[in-house]
Specification:
The chain is mostly helical and 139 residues long. It has one domain. It contains 4 helices and 2 strands. A two-stranded parallel ribbon has the order 1-2.
């Protein structure tokens, strides 16, 4: 079995096991007239954060086209950890997990607010594995 096939299977199983709980959870959010879109995004080059190119212009356009979300759930396979963790701090820091780029890129900060209560509720939705709340690093 190759990595791509394995990830598809695991993702499908995780989605099926928690979909009912997720529907219950989202019913408790404030009522909206529109559903927010679900986006799968591969970030591409970190330079897209500071360059003016087709990718960055499309992100700017997308930000004007969709309503401002109350929360964003980002699932990343960037980190090798012991266990499964969710960022649960009120003010997560910007992590620059790359090297060899211009200093201008390292100076970019993304002061997105965290949501400890939402992190706790999200962790409770996962039934197949224990999910820890990370208050230090930001995963």
């Amino acid at each position: 079995m190759n990595r791509k096939h394995f990830i598809k299977i695991i993702g499908g199983l995780a989605a099926m096991s928690t979909l009912g709980a997720f529907n219950t959870f989202t019913r408790n959010l404030k009522e909206r007239s529109e559903k927010m879109p679900v986006l799968f995004v591969g970030h591409g080059s970190p330079m897209n954060g500071i360059e003016d190119n087709e990718f960055s212009r499309r992100w700017a356009q997308l930000g004007k086209e969709i309503p401002r979300p109350e929360a964003v759930l980002c699932i990343s396979a960037h980190w090798l950890t012991r266990g499964t963790h969710i960022t649960a701090m009120a003010e997560p820091r910007t992590i620059h997990d790359f090297g060899g780029f211009p200093q201008e890129l390292f100076e970019v900060q993304y002061p997105a607010p965290g949501h400890p209560q939402l992190a706790k509720e999200t962790a409770a939705l996962v039934q197949e594995t224990q999910v820890g709340l990370d208050h230090d690093w930001g995963l």
